[in-house]
Amino acid sequence: MNKQYRDGGDLDVPNLDKPLELLESWVKEAKEKGSEVPNAMAISTVCNDGKSHSRMVLLNYQNDEEIGFFTNLNSNKALELRNNNSISVVFWWPELERQVRLEGKARQMPANQVLDYHNTRPRKSQIAAWSSNQSEELQSREELAEKFNFYEKKFEGMDVPVPEHWGGFLITVESVEYWSGRPNRLHERILLTKLETGWNHKRLYP
Ligand SMILES: Cc1cc2nc3c(=O)[nH]c(=O)nc-3n(C[C@H](O)[C@H](O)[C@H](O)COP(=O)(O)O)c2cc1C
């Protein structure tokens, strides 16, 4: 297990006014190179006792300085974010030999934006959102299947509404680090940090 990084490619952040532009193009490139879930990212949150918790979610929204994901608003991650809105994020695409790390502050997504995304989801995913008390104990798989069937019947012949317990979080990005794997462990790293106006740019030793 001693991987030789071939070449993640030269690293350059061409437009400091748009620090997340490179993230967007790396997600696209990972997709083109065959990544099944190029928008998968690990997010870490902190709970009351100071312990951190990480899990994968999907990047499903992005603008110049924010990224967003969707989830159950009663889940552990949502409760943790409501208590402490600091969040860190990491992407890794082995196909590209590239990593992106972000840090920032999360806030709940406005309802109209949640509705817009909900309306794009397959019906069965919408039903599943109603059926899951995410992060709570489940007695059996049958219980979940029964709930799914219940909501399928309940919403038969009508649009599935957005459950009150389902929504999203927007992360206002305060720092972003791009990493590209290079031969001989001489990897490239560029750290961008948000200032009062604009972004600071520096290279880091690998
Ligand atoms: C590739 C991948 C993508 C996932 N995407 C999401 C997502 O977008 N939203 C979500 O709530 N959970 C997603 N999950 C499940 C979470 O990792 C996690 O199990 C769940 O959200 C409960 O986390 P919590 O108990 O820390 O709140 C995903 C899991 C994987 C493996």
Description of the structure:
The structure is a single chain. Helices cover 25% and strands 34% of the residues. The chain is an alpha+beta fold and 206 residues long. The protein has a domain at 21-120 and 163-204: Pnp Oxidase, Chain A (Roll). Strands 1, 2, 3, 4, 5, 6, 7, 8 and 9 form a nine-stranded antiparallel beta sheet that branches. It starts with 20 loop residues before the first helix and ends with a strand. The structure holds flavin mononucleotide. Flavin mononucleotide binds next to strand 2, strand 4 and helix 2.
Keyphrases for this structure?
single chain; 206 residues; alpha+beta; Pnp Oxidase, Chain A; 9-stranded antiparallel sheet; 5 helices; 9 strands; 25% helix; binds flavin mononucleotide
Secondary structure layout plus pairing:
Blueprint: H1 21-32, E1 40-46, E2 52-58, E3 61-62, E4 66-72, H2 76-83, E5 86-93, E6 98-108, H3 111-118, H4 123-131, H5 141-154, E7 166-180, E8 188-194, E9 199-204
Helix pairs in contact: 4-5
Flavin mononucleotide is lined by residues 37, 40, 53, 55-58, 69-72, 75-77, 134-135.
